Amino acid sequence: MSAGVVPVHLAILVEGYHDSGDEGEMTVVRYASRLVEVAEVFFRAGCRQVSCFFPESLPEEAFLKALEPLVGEGVTLRFLRSDRMERVEAPVLNIGLAYSEKEMLLKLVRYFQGEQFLEETVTEYFTGRNWTEPDLVILTGGSHTIGSALTWSIAYSELFFSSLPWLEFTPLEAERALTEFQMRTRRFGRI
């Protein structure tokens, strides 16, 4: 990987899986173990926040156990929930299990009902919880669909599409995503 600009916040949207029972729990452990390998690449490169979104609601306990090596390295682990997001210090690994910004935005609109609801209001809400818009979003498994996980936050994010399913997304593929990001010229909506 060449030296250059590194995304401060990097998000990964993992394609869905459909295991159940004992095999399903083992898959969760494998998903989390893959996250440890890949997140280490991103944190070593200089990312301050890595967020990984899984479309299903999965058992947090299995993730906690598998992610202990990262937490032991000074990384804060935060499970994102649509109804609340606590403030934590970077570097942070965010885990979203069936997380939806769309739900969070609806709750914000209801909360501010009758008051002036501006883009700045939403931005302040997110930044007050140590959430920045991702600089780079990686979609795995050949997916080209964002879904509701990052409805608001990715307006100016760079996208990286990987044909590899999550369990085959290696640290080498993570480095490839970072290298491709470094070769881009970001325009933040400008033409």
What does it look like?
- The chain is α/β, with parallel strands linked by helices and 191 residues long.
- The chain has one domain: Decaprenyl diphosphate synthase-like (Undecaprenyl pyrophosphate synthetase).
- Helix content is 36%, strand content 16%.
- It contains six helices and six strands; from the N terminus they run E-H-E-H-H-E-E-H-H-E-E-H.
- Strands 3-4-2-1-5-6 form a six-stranded parallel sheet, covered by helices on one side.
- Helix 1 links the parallel strand 1 and strand 2.
- Helix 1 (21-45) packs across helix 2 and helix 1 packs across helix 6 (171-182).
What keywords describe this structure?
191 residues; alpha/beta; Undecaprenyl pyrophosphate synthetase; 6-stranded parallel β-sheet
CATH fold name: Undecaprenyl pyrophosphate synthetase
Order of helices and strands: EHEHHEEHHEEH
Largest sheet: 6 strands, parallel
User: How many strands?
Assistant: 6
User: Beta fraction of the residues?
Assistant: 15-25%
Assign the CATH superfamily. Decaprenyl diphosphate synthase-like
The N- to C-terminal Cα distance equals 28 Å
Write down the overall mean pLDDT: 83
Low-confidence stretches: none
Biggest sheet, spatial arrangement of strands:
3-4-2-1-5-6
Query: Which oligomerization state do the chains in this entry correspond to?
Result: single chain
Choose one word for the global shape. Answer: globular
CATH architecture assignment name: 3-Layer(aba) Sandwich
For the record, the count of structural domains works out to 1
The first-level CATH class name:
Alpha Beta
Sheet/helix structural class: alpha/beta
Number of helices: 6
Helical content band: 25-40%
Rounded to the nearest angstrom, the radius of gyration is 16 Å
